[in-house]
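REVIEWER CHECKLIST
Item 1: Sequence provided? yes
Item 2: Single chain? yes
Item 3: Sequence as submitted:
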Amino acid sequence: MSVGERIKLIRKSYDLTQVQFAEKLDLKQATIGRYESSSINPSVEALLRISNKLHVNLGWLLTGRKGEEDGSKSNKYKCPEIVKIQETDRLVSTNIEKLHRQESTSVIRRKKIIKEVNELRKVALDLTYRIISLQEELRKGL
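Item 4: Structure as written out by the authors:
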C-alpha cells in the first residue's frame, strides 16, 4: 500500500470528502487527489499535518507498519519533535485547567469573604444605631 493509498484510507475512515479533508489540512483538494493517486508524494510538512491534525502515527503513514511491531511503543515511528509538541501541549492544557480551577476556587472564596464582610458591616451599623438610640434615651431619662 502506498502513502497515497494510506492517505485515502485515513480520509475515508474520517468519512470526509477530498474537499473537507483538504480544508482540515489547509491544502487544496487537487493536491489531496494527487496524493491519493500517487501522482505526487506529500511533503514532510503535509505528512506532519496529517499526523498531528488527524492523530495518525507518522511511521505508519510513511511505511505502513504499525508502531507495535517488534515490541516497540506507538511513538517509535513518530518524529521526536511531534512527540515533544504533543507532550508539551498536554502539559500546558493540564496546567491551564489547574489554574482555571484554582482561579475559580479563589474567586468563590473572595465572593464569600466579601459577602461576610458586608453582613458584618450591616450588623456593626445596626449596633451603632442601637447604641446611639440607647445613649439618647439615657440622656432624656436623666
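Item 5: Key structural point noted by reviewer: The radius of gyration is 33 Å.
Item 6: Recommendation: ____
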